[in-house]
């Protein structure tokens, strides 16, 4: 799907196994920026390199032109095909310093964050060639560049990218999708990162990893406000479930999942970790104030 003159979105379907009989259908977007050379933003899960390479060929370009892969963060659905892309093209891998360990040592990531089906989703570790910092400019070719915006919350080293020339903002997983699985590390950082993104002017296209492109400034602001409202709803549900009760985290997670109207399968350790950040933040009434 062509999004702007230079940017193309590639939808990558995958499954997360919940049991030998059941799997959760998911998808993620990776993005291709075509200039003199090609830059990828995220790589999808293991095997997505074939989907991405086919999309590049459909536009008359060669996957060998990929010079850089920017990883928004280290989670399996963004990192999974990075090793294959690197091996096929020799491209430079770029990411924030706080994600480097889990990118270069995927076994450590699995130990620290055991996602179901991790070994199927991740094709292996890959070295980070360039560490990206908040406010840094990355040249993409043909007078096209992007600015790195550190947007922690979903993970400590999550980044967003502003492609000012195309009036496009790539947010990775920084914007929780209302009604979807609430997966993040720190709810306070999530809210602060979204506020940071809301302050960026003249963005016409929003590229989030979990949904089709959002086009138009008004729609983008509505989408960002909805992400904060969803976090506020989650935060309130967690604090309500925890009030005056002694619950272990998984029991609290089940109660909050039910209160939010999410499917029972959402009561899992990753979501429980997200809810734990609300307990750590406590009843901070200023957290969601405009």
Low-confidence segments: none
- Could you please say which CATH topology applies here? Metallo-beta-lactamase, Chain A
CATH architecture heading = 4-Layer Sandwich
CATH superfamily: Ribonuclease Z/Hydroxyacylglutathione hydrolase-like
How would you sum up the major sheet?
Answer: 6 strands, mixed
Number of domains: 1
Class by SSE composition: alpha/beta
Number of helices: 10
User: Rg from C-alpha positions?
Assistant: 19 Å
C-alpha termini separation: 35 Å
Inertia-based shape: globular
SSE layout and pairings?
Elements: E1 7-17, E2 23-34, E3 38-41, H1 48-58, E4 66-70, H2 76-79, H3 82-89, E5 92-96, H4 100-104, H5 106-112, H6 118-121, E6 130-132, E7 137-141, E8 144-150, E9 159-163, E10 168-172, H7 187-198, E11 205-208, E12 214-215, H8 217-242, H9 249-260, H10 269-281
Parallel strand pairs: 3-4, 4-5, 5-6, 10-11
Antiparallel strand pairs: 1-2, 2-3, 7-8, 8-9, 9-10, 11-12
């Amino acid at each position: 799907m062509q999004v702007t003159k230079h940017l193309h979105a590639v939808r990558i379907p995958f499954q997360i196994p919940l049991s030998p009989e059941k799997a959760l259908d998911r998808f993620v977007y990776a993005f291709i920026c075509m200039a003199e050379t090609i830059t990828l933003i995220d790589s999808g899960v293991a095997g997505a390199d074939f989907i991405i390479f086919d999309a590049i060929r459909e536009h008359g370009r060669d996957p060998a032109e990929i010079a850089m892969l920017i990883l928004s963060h280290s989670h399996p659905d963004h990192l999974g095909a990075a090793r294959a892309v690197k091996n096929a093209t020799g491209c430079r891998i770029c990411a924030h310093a706080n994600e480097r360990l889990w990118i270069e040592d995927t076994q450590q990531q699995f130990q620290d964050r055991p996602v179901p089906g991790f070994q199927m989703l991740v094709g292996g570790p890959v070295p980070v060639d360039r560490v990206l910092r908040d406010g840094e400019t990355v040249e993409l070719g043909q007078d096209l560049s992007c600015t790195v915006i550190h947007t922690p919350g979903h993970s400590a080293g999550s980044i967003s990218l502003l492609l000012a020339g195309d009036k496009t903002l790539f947010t990775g997983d920084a914007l929780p999708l209302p009604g979807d699985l609430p997966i993040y590390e720190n709810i306070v950082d999530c809210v602060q990162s979204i506020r940071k993104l809301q302050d960026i002017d003249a963005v016409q296209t929003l590229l989030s990893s979990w949904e089709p492109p959002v086009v138009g400034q008004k729609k983008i602001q509505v989408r960002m406000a909805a992400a904060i409202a969803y976090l506020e709803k989650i935060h309130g549900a967690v604090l309500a479930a925890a009030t005056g009760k002694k619950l272990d985290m998984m029991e609290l997670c089940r109660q909050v999942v039910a209160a939010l109207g999410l499917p029972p399968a959402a009561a899992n350790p990753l979501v429980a970790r997200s809810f734990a950040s609300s307990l750590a933040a406590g009843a901070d009434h200023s957290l969601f104030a405009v």
